[in-house]
């Protein structure tokens, strides 16, 4: 594909990208904010329909049938044979009222846009649509089918979207994930596995002054367990709660533990060690229940990812863009999609940073070259 034409077509999509970004950022759509997530899904569905894509809205629920919002699945058929899946998400981590307090702003001196979700992942989602529109403008239809999915629950581990993502991944020949590039421009070629482990300790209450020996102190057990868990590699006790009053032997305590590991064996070993330690009699009379929430296994790249990286490097070279990559400690839907065995590459949105914080930013100067890179990569692997 002619690099100059690719850049020009991507540049033509930039005004619409920026207008859409402002519209999506003005919607509060943190995880579980169902009304806002449905509004964001409806707005994105409109953008995709206007571009000529087939749009399907899929209601998403958790395992207790509580609504989490809507996923949007868009499709575009071509004349080729390969099916390419693009994956992004609608939800953010911010509470209601954030969009009104921090609407999209642009710093002309730095070329950065600021706002909730501007980088994670509204910028990436809209870059995916812009890349498809770029291909349409150039008449590049060598793919068999392009599928772009936007889910409403990535920030809480895609607890309801996992079956949808698994089904789409099984049908794909290549998967391109639209989390934004790292703040230095790196694509993402591997991600650590992550799990939250909830440990509830059950003791027995008693008067702390009169008959403490009748109690079983869950707070003490939690303290011992915290020390033991912190000795494990890749484990962090982030939440520790215990008791109700200072003069009562605590009959309950709760820990929430973060687990991260780059390799599957280390990930499974950490989870097994947590279960073993929680089951030890740290304090007589205190028992534990352990629940692993939204386990997301490591994605360590592999030959398929390496092949996609080579293609991205080739397209980048033609565009005058140096393509670099890195592994990262944060997990994303790329981890789940890689379980299919299909080749995955992530970080294909524009360059951004400050994720989950009040200064989250998107480099607007990176939008056109990164949309061109994504469009060229889709065409190259088609």
TrEMBL record:
InterPro entries: ArgE/DapE_CS, Bact_exopeptidase_dim_dom, Pept_M20_glutamate_carboxypep, Peptidase_M20, Peptidase_M20_dimer, Peptidase_M20A. Its cofactor is Zn(2+). Residues 190-283 form the Peptidase M20 dimerisation domain. It comes from the Bacteria. Keywords: Hydrolase, Metal-binding, Zinc. This is M20/M25/M40 family metallo-hydrolase. It comes from Catellatospora aurea.
